[in-house]
Amino acid sequence: MIFLTERQKEVLELSCKGLSIREICQELGIKNGTAKSHLTKLFRLFKVNNRVQLLIEAIKSGMIPCHEKHTQNDPMVRRVRLY
Fold first, then answer.
1. How does pLDDT run across 12-65, given as a tens digit for each residue?
2. Side-chain half-sphere CA neighbours of 58 within 13 A
3. Closest CA to 9 of 49, 62, 68, 79
4. Which of 27, 46, 47, 54 is surrounded by the fewest CB atoms within 10 Å?
5. What's the whole-model pTM score?
6. What is the 3-state secondary structure (H, E, C) of the chain?
7. Which residues contact 19 (CB under 8 A, 6 or more apart)?
8. How far is CA 77 from CA 17, 45, 50, in A?
9. DSSP code of 62?
C-alpha cells in the first residue's frame, strides 16, 4: 500500500485531472520546483516514468476514482483519454 502526504494527494489529483505544472502551482500556491519534486516522488512511489502511467496506477490502486462513463467536460478526461 502506498501512503501519501496530503500535499502529494493534492498534486496527484490535479495531475490526473490533466493540469500542467504551472496550473498545479497556481492552484496550490507552490513553486515550480516544489510541484516537480512532488511529481518526481509520486513517480518513484508508484514506480512509473510519466503522468499517463501515474494516472493508470492511481486508478488501479483506488486513489483516483474511475467512472464507467465520462463526458467531454469531465476534468478527469480533459486532456488524457484512455480507450
1. 999 988 899 999 999 999 999 999 999 999 999 999 999 999 999 998 988 887
2. 26
3. 62
4. 47
5. 0.76
6. CCCCCHHHHHHHHHHHCCCCHHHHHHHHCCCHHHHHHHHHHHHHHHCCCCHHHHHHHHHHCCCCCCCCCCCCCCHHHCCCCCC
7. 27
8. 7, 23, 17
9. T
